[in-house]
Structures are given as C-alpha cells and as structure tokens.
Amino acid sequence: MKGDEAPQGRSEAREEAILGATLELLAEVGYDRMSMDAIAVRARAGKATIYRRWSGKAELVVTAVERHAGQRMAEQADPGDLREDLLGTLRAMREGLTAQDAGVLLGLMTAMHHDEELARTVRARMIDDKRQAFDPVIDRAVARGEVPARSNREMLAEVASAMLFSRAFVTSRPLDDAFLTDLVDQVLLPLLGHQRGEA
Length: 199
What we know:
The chain has helices at 8-33, 36-43, 47-53, 57-69, 82-98, 102-112, 116-144, 153-171, 177-192. The chain is mainly alpha-helical and 199 residues long. Keywords: DNA-binding, Transcription, Transcription regulation.
C-alpha cells in the first residue's frame, strides 16, 4: 500500500462515496452524459483516486450497479437435487434484479449499442457472472447423472436471464416463486435434458 493512501476504513468510505455518486449521476443524466469529472465532484474525490481503482467510466459504472444489487452471488451449498439447485440460483438472481433501478439498467442496455467499451465490460462482468452462476449447478447435476455432460450451459443461462429480465423490467408480471418453479420445470430442466429415475 502506498504511503499516501488513507487507512482502510477511510478508503472504503471513499469508495462507497464514489460508487454512490456514480449511481446518482447515472439516474440523473444517463450514462452518455455522465463524466468522470462530474463523479469526482459529486463524490468529493480526486480523479486520480478514482482512476487508481477503476480504468474508466464503463468499469466504474458496472461496479456501482453490481454493488448496489449485490449481483455477485456466492456459490450455494449443494442441495443434492438439480431442481432445488436451479431454484436457489434463480432466487439469488431475482434478488439482484429486484434491487436494480429499471431506468438505470435499461439506460445501460441502450448505451451498450453505441459504446463498445461499456458493452464489453457489461458482457465480461455482468452477463458472464450470470453464466458462471449456473456452472457449479450443472457440474453437480452431471456428477449425479441427472443431466448429460454436454448440456447447453450457455443457452440455459441466456434463457433464464432473459426471462427474469423480461418479468422484472418489461412485462411487470409477478417474479414470484410460482414463476420460478414454472421456469425450472417447464423450460430449464427440459432444456438440460434432465434425467430422473429411468427417464
């Protein structure tokens, strides 16, 4: 640690101030009109401090959105059954989505179409995180003989994420346990080629 850096507690408080300022400005003016200068002013932090932690606006914004929603999910304990494992993962994803501000997230999706740096960062950090969340679930199911080893992991993550996103931000229909159960039973288990008993 460099001698001019603040003690850890103060450093963490400064980081939270920067991430909070980022979210505030993102909601107020949108990604395109938000600048690192404005974030520094709002957070009362130097730009050098910001750039020591984040390479640029895209990485900073994605970190702020992730931190707000608690999207990075810890690997859950193995319940011993693929169906319950999928439901647990979907519940954790739902908590992250419902903590999001719809306007902020939809604005980010729009900005991705013309900002390649943002698109690349979102894909690497947010979308890939969701894909990786299912990997331990499928690995455990393969080891138990519940699904084939060549199950389509990418399709599973894409379909599950899209359906949760649609419910949360597009259709405004309930994102409840009944929906998650239907999603698992009617879509995800068949997509994986789930084997139960002699089936």
